[in-house]
Recover the amino acids of this structure.
């Protein structure tokens, strides 16, 4: 599938792997893909993010992603579901951090030296793999021959989880990105 990726999309994947390595995470996840997308410039994905005002909020997005990681990667919907069961996630995180130190739940996904597959490459989580496959589906749906970073962005906006929630909190939704990239019609017409 990577042979269908544009240079920009390949750069996003490479930077996601680098984010993963720098943070000491075991595997590349959707959050790493989003952080890498936020760093791109001069691409269709970065154009969409700029048109939606996200460049001025990159630090806020990174902070929101970090806070979600601190909660063990749980979304607000997860926290609400736990709350319905009588479990206060904020109190739970505080107690875990009192016992095990700040960021203990975030550190659960880390390992010294990281984890690599047999090929020597850093492994991807099932969620990250679903984003990559989703990018292919998005590209095909828009009759695009290659998979660009804009398709990765669109795939992140539709996959339930922290990245989509954080993007939506900052006004970046599947509908808004599609409108910027393909116009206000059905999403099938390509922007020039």
């Amino acid at each position: 599938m990577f042979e269908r990726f544009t240079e920009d999309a390949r750069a996003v994947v490479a930077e996601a792997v680098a984010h993963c390595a720098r943070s000491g995470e075991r595997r590349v996840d959707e959050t790493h893909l989003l952080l890498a997308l936020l760093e791109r410039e001069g691409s269709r994905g970065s154009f969409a993010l700029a048109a939606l005002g996200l460049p001025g909020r990159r630090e806020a997005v990174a902070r929101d992603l970090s806070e979600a990681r601190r909660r063990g990667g749980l979304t607000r919907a997860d926290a609400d579901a736990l709350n319905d069961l009588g479990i206060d996630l904020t109190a739970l995180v505080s107690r875990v951090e009192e016992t095990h130190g700040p960021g203990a739940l975030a550190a659960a996904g880390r390992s010294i030296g990281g984890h690599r597959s047999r090929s020597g490459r850093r492994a991807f989580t099932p969620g990250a793999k679903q984003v990559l496959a989703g990018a292919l589906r998005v590209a095909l749906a828009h009759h695009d021959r290659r998979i660009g970073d804009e398709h990765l962005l669109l795939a992140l906006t539709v996959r339930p989880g922290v990245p989509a929630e954080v993007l939506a909190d900052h006004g970046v939704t599947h509908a808004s990105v599609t409108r910027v990239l393909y116009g206000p019609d059905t999403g099938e017409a390509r922007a020039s």
Observations:
- Residues 7-23 form the longest helix (17 residues).
